[in-house]
Amino acid sequence: MEKKRCHWAQNVPEIYEVYHDEEWGVPQHDDKRLFEMLILEGFQAGLSWLTILKKREAFRKAFDYFDVQKVANYTDEKIEILMNNADIVRNRRKIEASRRNAQVFMQIQKEYGSFDSYLWGFTENQVVYDHGDIIPSSTPLSDNISKDLKKRGMNFVGTTIIYAYLQAVGVVHSHEQECFLYHKAS
Fold it and tell me: Which residue in the list 24, 36, 41, 120 is annotated as catalytic?
């Protein structure tokens, strides 16, 4: 019998099903993974997540496996190399934002001890259960985090991007009630 998934993960390529089943909504606490997802969500802006998933391995290679220190220190020459890499999304503003966002990410790590502590501090280390007939594209939580990240100097961290990020890294649990991964707050 076929697993019942969230509507967006039905009748889609297998890579999307695997992402839904094994990654999306799983609480993440590893800074490297949190950084990778933050950068990929920024690249997804205006595109489909499927496009990013298909290019994820190429992004990992191109961006030094999302080593935040390396990305923070990218030179203009490295930016040009990335601009010429046909295997990733070649958007100069997004590539340059990745370097800037890495620098701010590291500042947050220094201030809070980890990006994980910063991010999960917004919810007092609790998963937010966001269920309903209509899942929003932003919430007061994503508004607050977006505003703070922008104030710190990050780009491509608007409230819609941040809400998708929060869902992806499990801060927000949005699996639909019919989905085999659904569960309510205890």
Answer: 41
